[in-house]
Write a structure and sequence with these properties.
This protein is 46% helix and 11% strand. By secondary structure, the protein is mainly α. It has a domain at 111-141 and 164-356: Retinoid X Receptor. The strands form 4 sheets. A 3-stranded mixed beta sheet has the order 7-9-8. Strands 1-2 form a two-stranded antiparallel ribbon. The longest helix is centred in the last third of the chain and has 28 residues, at 305-332.
Length: 363
């Protein structure tokens, strides 16, 4: 319990207006905790109780009903662990957001308010903005590590590469959750729907962000460390690595600004997913985001109207491409779900992708 209390955590999403249960719920029982500094000791659905697991896109997804208990429950390997509500402290940011935008649904905001709100949220929580990418000092993964033994078997090398890959991807979970909190309308969704959108949309949003620092042969993380195409082929397989690079190349060819990437990220986050309850509300909110993206693209390309009209259909087509990449990424993780007791992955990475965790990871 003391370990949980030492962890600085944040709540994503405001109190939903509706619960899956008919009765009203107290505010302290309707928050979802995500660890902000030490992901190994808290989970995405930390303060939700009475969880049960469904299969979504071929991967298990924990969905929950709100518990009226005064204590929060962390879900780990399907077993609730008590966690004090006091450990769920909200972190404030120095970024100025529009006046509490989550108390308004998108139709109540103007298109330009939505653009401004999401643009600010993206710049506050994305580490792949054009300015930050420009400042990167790139270094190869092998150059920055002294633990990799080239004499290891191919399987051992692949596991090591996966661990390095996962370690550098994991911090983005917290940032994307913080971004989601600030997407107008997101806090109005049921908590179960919020959880599904975050878990199934995370990889797609992350890949959209990292595309900015990806070229035809390397993928560079926000710390400047890069993976080569050959290393990604070892992590996944040549076909998937090629599809990943094709997506990033196609997205980069659209020459989106940071504001447009932010709006596109929100569009991806609010995609229709299996298991959602309030699909119509989510898709209505998504339509508002799509309109804001269309306005921003047209406004920023006033001198090239034909080009602007071509970009939006191309982006919509890449949403489907992203969905396929996300599903195949989940399939690649199936080996880790089967052999979870022999490998170590960052606990929050394991949580977002439903990979079981060793007991020592939860200490």
């Amino acid at each position: 319990m003391e370990q949980y209390e030492r962890v600085e955590a944040v709540r994503y999403g405001r109190v939903p207006k509706k619960s899956r249960e008919a009765g009203s719920c107290s505010e302290e029982n309707m928050s979802i905790c995500v660890n902000s500094t030490t992901p190994s000791v808290t989970q995405l659905n930390g303060s939700l109780g009475n969880g049960h697991t469904n299969s979504v896109n071929g991967m298990p997804t924990t969905t929950t009903s709100i518990s009226n208990s005064s204590s929060n429950n962390a879900i780990s390997n399907g077993t609730p662990n008590a966690m004090s509500t006091n450990s769920c402290a909200e972190i404030s940011t120095s970024t100025t957001i529009l006046p509490d935008s989550l108390t308004f649904t998108p139709p109540e905001l103007s298109v330009y308010d939505i653009i401004q709100c999401i643009a600010q949220a993206h710049r506050a929580h994305c580490t792949y903005t054009s300015e930050l990418v420009k400042e990167q000092n790139r270094i190869s993964l092998l150059s920055c590590s002294d633990k990799h033994n080239p004499l290891e078997s191919l399987e051992e090398q692949r596991i090591w590469l996966w661990q390095q890959y996962a370690m550098r991807m994991t911090p983005a979970v917290q940032r994307i959750v913080e971004f989601a909190k600030r997407v107008p309308g997101f806090g109005e969704f049921l908590q179960d729907d919020q959880l599904i959108l975050i878990k199934l949309g995370f990889f797609e949003v992350w890949l959209t962000h990292v595309a900015r620092s990806t070229n035809d042969s390397t993928l560079t993380f926000d710390d400047g460390v890069y993976l080569t195409r050959q290393q990604l082929e070892a992590i996944y397989d040549p076909e998937y690595a090629n599809a990943l690079f094709n997506f990033t190349s196609g997205l980069n060819s659209c020459c989106l600004s940071d504001t447009e990437i932010g709006l596109y990220s929100a569009l991806i986050l609010l995609s229709d997913r299996p298991g959602l309850v309030e699909t119509k509300l989510i898709l209505k909110t998504r339509e508002c985001i799509a309109e804001a993206l269309r306005v921003q693209i047209t406004r920023s390309r006033a001198n090239n109207g034909i080009g602007a009209l071509q970009i939006m259909p191309a982006l919509e087509a890449r949403v489907h491409e992203l969905r396929m990449l996300g599903e195949k990424h989940s399939a690649h993780l199936e080996w880790f779900r089967t052999n979870w007791n022999t490998i170590r992955l960052p606990p929050l990475f394991a949580e977002i992708f439903d990979v079981p965790k060793c007991e020592e990871d939860l200490q």
